[in-house]
Amino acid sequence: MKRLLRNIATLATAIITLTTATAQDVPAPGTVSSNDFRARIEGAFEWEVAKDLSLEAGIQLRLNNDLGSVDRMQTTVGLNYEVCKYFDIGADYILINSHDHTKKSWDKPRHRANLNLEGKVKLGRVELSLRERVQTTFRTDSVNRYEKMNPEIILRSRLMAEYSIRHTGWTPYILFELHNTLNAPAVVANFKAAPLRTDNYITRYRAGVGAKLRITRNHRLDFYYYFDYDRGYNIDYKANKGDLKGYLQENEFRHIFGISYKFKL
Fold first, then answer.
1. For the chain, domain boundaries
2. Could you write out the DSSP letters of every residue in 55-89?
3. 228, 253 Cβ separation under 8 angstroms
4. pTM of the complete model
5. Any idea of the CA torsion for 87, 152, 38, 175, to the nearest 10 degrees?
6. Which of 128, 199, 182, 136 is nearest to 158 (CA)?
7. Is 110's pLDDT higher than 90?
8. What is the tens place of the pLDDT at every residue in 45-92?
């Protein structure tokens, strides 16, 4: 019995020592912060192709660097099915064309697929909804999977409250959204000496206010403002040796103003 206890104690000590050594090998990340004012302009149409099944397509232009440069142009097409008045399911595809303002060129397009599940309930003139979105983004450039995953998978959880103002066509709303990584690469001291591990953490907090305007039966506008706190990690390894070269936590505070027009067939 004493021998068994001694072996257990030895094993526990070895595990603690290994864990401590690993933690010491990976330094705490440095931090860098930035603020940016951004804008989004979007045009879309929606078509009910069958009962409770709608097709939606649109194109969106995004500006960044305090509205001084184009960030990206993205094209979206998707389907949404209303299972019942309390629940929707949908899927969409997005082609993302990023713009490098320093090179004044378009490069590194990405492909994104979303699966959306949304529950909703009406309380008088207020509608509450919770949307869970699994977002998968495929890169077309070559990356080290210890630095960036390809594809990158994120769970986006959005809680939203809308209030329909009688006889005006206006529906103001508020929302809060979290982005949670599902397969972010974990940081290691040397990626050639360690197996690939994934990490999970909240990478974005978003709070927003807006108002939808129903101009006519077919024409809709949406005005909104989002405040984003985006917390990402920039991991850099030495390509030849595999040693950790740089590890930064990048904190971005984004003020996003947007307008969206939708034509509903």
1. 31-264
2. EEEEEEEEEETTTTEEEEEEEEEEEEEEEETTEEE
3. yes
4. 0.87
5. 30
6. 128
7. yes
8. 999 999 999 999 999 999 999 999 999 999 999 999 999 999 999 999
Q: Classify residue 146 by its DSSP letter.
A: T
**Encoded tokens for 224:** 């909104």
> What is d(CA 150, CA 28) in angstroms, rounded to the nearest whole number?
25
Helices and strands (DSSP H and E) totals, the chain: 1, 13
- CATH number for 31-264: choose from 2.40.128, 3.30.70, 2.60.40, 1.10.3470: 2.40.128
pLDDT tens digits for range 171-181: 999 999 999 99
CA distance 152 to 162: 31
Q: For residues 47 and 67, give the distance between their C-alpha atoms in angstroms, rounded to a whole number.
A: 32
Please list, residue by residue across 179-212, b when 16 or more beta carbons sit within 10 angstroms of its beta carbon and e when fewer do. Answer: bebebbbebbbebeebeeeeeeeebbebebebeb
Q: Of all helices (H) and strands (E), which one includes residue 6?
A: helix 2-25
